[in-house]
Design a protein that fits this description.
Elements lengths: L2 H15 L5 H21 L9 H35 L7 E2 H10 L4 H11 L6 E2 L1 H13 L18
Antiparallel strand pairs: 1-2
Helix pairs in contact: 1-2, 3-6, 4-5
């Protein structure tokens, strides 16, 4: 694809639908110029003022991947919220130490380890876990390479203590 092809397409649309020199024709031309600039800025990796088939496909794959990651993230956030709501047995919008221990018991984690994890996850040290603390902890747990990160105990100890 080249810029001239977008200009030709705009001209064909204008010839078919709009009066020559009209505001509508100028608007169509401007839109196609803007679309070209946007596409070229993203896709014309080698700077040759063309978008090759490889550049086009690479851009579409990257966009699909980014969309899939965003959809996955939204789904995971929804699941985190639902899990948090299930942990919040009394419905007060926060998870107490007792509620947290109950979940950890289901994972086979000792009360001592559950309490240690809770203390690390309770960032503001108010004695409760909020949805924001849980989302931040699960995000850190899934992305951090730091074994000392506060979220490393999210699901209990991962190795011998």
């Amino acid at each position: 694809m080249k810029e001239g092809e977008f200009q030709t397409l705009a001209e064909k649309i204008n010839d078919s639908l709009l009066a020559p020199g009209s505001q509508g024709a100028a608007a169509v031309t401007a839109v196609f110029q803007e679309v070209w600039k946007d596409m070229a800025a993203r896709m014309d990796v080698d700077g040759d003022q063309r978008i090759s088939l490889d550049e086009f496909i690479t851009d579409k794959l990257e966009a699909a991947r980014a969309g899939a990651v965003a959809a996955h993230t939204r789904k995971r956030d929804e699941l985190r919220r639902r899990l948090f709501e299930a942990m919040d047995r009394d419905g007060d919008g926060k998870v107490s130490m007792a509620e947290h221990r109950g979940i950890f018991r289901a994972f086979g984690v000792s009360a001592t380890d559950a309490e240690r994890a809770f203390a690390r996850l309770d960032v503001d040290q108010d004695g409760f876990l909020t949805i924001d603390e849980m989302i931040e902890a699960t995000l850190e747990y899934n992305t951090s390479t730091d074994p000392q990160a506060g979220s490393s105990d999210l699901l209990g100890p991962l190795g011998p203590r």
